[in-house]
Amino acid sequence: MQSKDDILKLIHSSAFQKMMKTKNRMVFCFSLLTLIAYCLFFIAIAWLPDWMGEPMFSAGIVSTGIWLAIFSVIFAVFISGIYTWWANKYFDKELQQVLQEAGLNEE
User: Fold this and answer.
1) 86 lies in a domain?
2) pLDDT, mean of residues 63-82
């Protein structure tokens, strides 16, 4: 079991700070991309209601707005998947390395 001092030492270490800075930057970028996608969708609803209500395809019955809403949700899931892949591939390995260097790895 780690003591409170060991954990505080880890949190204040430069390797941990660098790792968290990278993680926070990635989270901010992915969150910003998702926010931009949703904002563009809502802007289109507000300023282009006629266009959003038209069918996207000439023989289709589903409106452009519905297709864009589906795209927005799929985009958010895609961004979440990319973040999860990145976290599993890079962040988790770096975290294990930082914990091992600090002597807090329980493996």
Assistant:
1) yes
2) 94
Q: Which domain holds residue 78?
A: 22-102
- At 21 the pLDDT is 94
Residues 6+ apart with CB under 8 A from 57: none
Domain assignment present for 6: no
Q: Give the distance from CA 74 to its chain's centroid.
A: 13
Domains: count for the chain: 1
Reported confidence tier of residue 71, pLDDT bands at 50, 70, 90: very high
Q: Give the residue among 35, 18, 26, 16 at the shortest CA–CA distance from 87.
A: 26
Give residue for tokens 């802007």.
Answer: 43
**Whole-angstrom Cα distance, residue 54 to residue 60?**
10
d(Cα 40, Cα 104) in Å, to the nearest integer?
45
Structure token digits, residue 102 = 């600090």
The helix (run of H) or strand (run of E) holding residue 29 is helix 14-47
